[in-house]
Write a structure and sequence with these properties.
By secondary structure, the protein is of the alpha+beta class. 46% of the residues lie in helices and 13% in strands.
């Protein structure tokens, strides 16, 4: 059921994290052009991740016993907000820290926890998500990648696609079929923790229209995995993958993908010295919508801090937030139409985000999937 999204305030001890993070980012990102920073959580930089980990800012909310910072969800909100607003390249650790390590802590064995989670917190273990498959679309329950029990472990065959940085990750948590057939839907699904250096694993990068290679196709050709590659219980994959998706959708990142473009546009407007009424209106519109969405996202953070599972509420924020992110390149492009004084750095940033923004409502669950979740939460289906 849907709960009220109550107004939440970041506690002072967590807000205090903002200034040291800003100082760190100002030094690390000095001279990086906005078109490059606009890639932010799709920007892969292992050196940046290791530097962030040295500050204790990877695995910020994870338990200290496993190398984490044991900080609150509000501290993580502040960190993520600053990283994305600055356009930091966080893709190397993003999936591992946001969902893979928490999933292992919830369902994994003690050996899995001890081996993996501290390495994530040190910025040494990168993960990708093994969900989507060729010809499956958003029908996650139709996965055909199969793992069969063999002497000493599992034999894995199949293909995952649209796998973010599968060609650079060390591990994948994959949803696979361990019994039954695709017609059994969610029955017979399990999750496997896969070392991507295992023989028989092939990752092929997929180049996007911006020339980047942040997606890949990962193929498993009779890959032999140890028995302890099973994450959680055999046959519980559907329950576990939904918990993983809840981790993915509950963060504040769904409203900040176009922030670097907004800042570049505001710099241009201020630098011109003759701000028009239309520019004031557009700036006010963007600020008002961002403020409302930020408060909604903070409310979800407060629910997480209270130990709740805001699946429906997070889906609402993601749906509205990605719509906002997608609107920004169009609104700014319309404003710049016919102007000849816009700097090249602004135009390059606009070109990149204008091409990439259709993907914002695909990652982490399509708009149609999210609205189905919301409808069920409202009792409409």
């Amino acid at each position: 059921m849907l709960e009220t999204l109550d107004l939440a305030i970041i506690p002072p001890e967590d807000e205090a994290l903002r200034e040291p993070v800003r100082a760190f980012l100002a030094e690390r990102l000095a001279g990086v052009p906005p078109a490059r920073r606009a890639r932010t959580w799709m920007g892969f930089d292992a050196d940046f991740t290791r530097a962030l980990a040295e500050k204790g800012w990877v695995g910020l909310t994870l338990p200290k016993d496993y190398g984490g910072g044991a900080r609150s969800h509000f501290a993580r909100f502040v960190l993520i907000e600053e990283l994305l607003a600055a356009g930091a390249p966080v893709a190397a650790h993003w999936i591992a820290e946001r969902q893979s390590a928490p999933l292992i802590l919830r369902y994994g064995s003690e050996d899995q926890k001890r081996k993996i989670v501290p390495a994530v917190c040190r910025g040494e273990a990168f993960f990708c998500i093994g969900m989507s498959e060729p010809n499956s679309g958003s029908d996650l329950a139709s996965v055909r990648t199969r793992a069969e029990k063999v002497a000493g472990g599992w034999k894995l065959s199949g293909t995952k696609i649209w796998t973010t940085y599968g060609h650079k990750a060390h591990y994948m948590i994959a949803l696979v079929r361990t019994s039954g057939t695709p017609e059994d839907r969610s029955g017979g699904l399990s999750q496997l923790l896969i070392d991507l250096n295992t023989p028989g694993v092939t990752a092929r990068p997929i180049r996007d229209l911006a020339g980047d290679e942040h997606f890949s196709e990962v193929h498993f050709d009779d890959v032999l995995l140890p028995e302890d590659a099973l994450l959680g219980r055999e046959g519980a994959g559907w329950e576990q993958v939904n918990a993983e998706l809840a981790f993915e959708r509950s963060g504040p990142e769904r409203i900040y993908s176009s922030t670097v473009l907004v800042d570049a546009w505001l710099d241009y407007v201020r630098g011109r010295g003759d701000v028009t009424e239309a520019e004031r209106v557009l700036a006010g519109r963007l600020l008002a919508e961002l403020s409302a969405l930020r408060n909604m996202s903070l409310s979800v953070t407060a629910m997480l801090a209270a130990g709740k599972s805001p699946v429906v509420e997070a889906s609402i924020v993601k749906d509205l937030g990605t719509g906002f992110e997608q609107s920004i390149p169009t609104l700014i492009a319309d404003h710049l139409a016919g102007r000849e004084d816009a700097p090249e750095s602004l135009l390059a940033t606009l070109e990149y985000l204008g091409g990439m923004c259709p993907t914002f409502s695909l990652r982490g669950g399509t708009r149609e999937i999210l609205r189905g979740i919301i409808a069920r939460g409202l009792g409409l289906r």
